[in-house]
Amino acid sequence: MSEISFELFSNQLVQKLVGPSDGNLRLIEKTLNVEIGSFGNQMTISGSKNAIEQAKTTIDVLYHKVSKGIEINEQEVKAAMRMTNGGLDKDTAKNLSDIVLKTKKRHIYPRSATQAEYIQTMMDNELVFGLGPAGTGKTYLAVALAVSMMLEGKIDKIILSRPAVEAGENLGFLPGDLKEKVDPYLRPLYDALYEMLPAEQVDKKLAIGEIEIAPLAFMRGRTLANAFIILDEAQNTTPMQMKMFLTRLGENSRMVVNGDLSQVDLPKGVDSGLKEAIGILKKVDGIGSITFTAADVVRHGLVAKIVKAYEDKNKKDRND
Length: 320
Fold this sequence. Notes:
This protein is of the alpha/beta class and 320 residues long. The protein is built from 12 helices and 11 strands. It has helices spanning 11-18, 23-32, 49-67, 74-84, 90-97, 113-124, 138-151, 178-196, 199-208, 239-246, 273-281, 301-319, and strands at residues 2-7, 35-39, 42-47, 101-102, 107-108, 127-131, 157-162, 211-215, 227-231, 254-259, 287-291. A 6-stranded parallel β-sheet has the order 8-7-9-10-6-11, sandwiched between helices. Strands 1-3-2 form a 3-stranded antiparallel β-sheet. It has a two-stranded antiparallel sheet with strand order 4-5. The protein starts with a strand and ends with a helix.
């Protein structure tokens, strides 16, 4: 067991950091298996050396956030602990936590170091692959960056796509017109938009074509310029579909391709276009790739445990 003591500058900011009944500190204690004492702006942390280091860096990140006027709640505390997991130093963790995507309805911050790296990679590259399980924020953050860039006037159009129903996109047997057929499969993309923009703005932009949500087949034959293009559930594309989609990229455009290679729903014997593209393009300049794990899941805590259990099983199966 070890112990450190340190002082934070402002009593007022410390009160906002620790939360009602020191609830934010109790969450850090429980998660990292440390003990934290808080007396005014004086703090002590006791526990194992590695746990103390992460707890101290977590508190530094939270103090940095609260000093910028960000309200500290349970989600912010959990995000700070994910951000500092892996031994990041406090300056790096602070810099990552400063990344922000500004939309009309909210400011969106990364909730893990991998999320921060993903956002930065999307900013720096014209084509990015986001790989990993559900709940890690791949699509949500891509939509957030697209909305942010549109509001800043950097792009004219947002195009959101995914394979509908199945790789072959056989929609004919479903009832209703085309919109009614595909909307249920594109719902997560709509949900993200409505969290970032007022509903009337989303509806207007959809009506005039500034935001387009369409099944993958609708991308064929197009050149997409001045646009932010996102392909979701890309593990369910065939190699031919993936090549078709990637070659739609036009001038002043960015493309993000997201998928989970452990959730391929293609017919038996059909290769995933996402898996093939990652292998073919991994050494091409201007293309970035970020891989998320169960540690990056930002949904309900149980989701992370479920994803981790499946990852462990898959790893065991590969080793057997």
